[in-house]
Amino acid sequence: MKYITGVHALNLPCSLDTSGDWHTSWIQWESPKTKDTESSFWGDWGIEYHSIPEHEGAFPVANHIRACFDMLEDGDFSNLQGMNKDYICNDEYDEFIFQQVSRLKGKKNWANIDKFMEKEYLMKWIRYQEAHAHDKAEAVAN
Fold this sequence. Notes:
The chain is built from 7 helices and 4 strands, in the order βαβββαααααα. It has 142 residues and is mainly alpha-helical. The chain has one domain.
């Protein structure tokens, strides 16, 4: 299923307690950024239905966290700057975000994703990585 994501999705409301972006008026809505759930790492997780500017009806749209995940996977770091404090703005989601982003380990752009997450979340991300590296080592030992 095709769905709207990226900056377009960040500029639409979603069901999460997140802020998203606030630049809706300067965005070109004629042909918003889309991806397909069939070929996406995240499948159909985080897809909601919303109306979008300049179109009639409801469309499948990534929630704010899903839009950020898609942007991470695509390496769209310049548009994603501010993910933590500007788009999510809710520490309640940190653990979930860290778990899901860690699933991208092994992707060709993992080093860039890791660096971006460290810049956005600082020591929270580093501590999460350290704690879970220890958990994985214990699991392998057992």
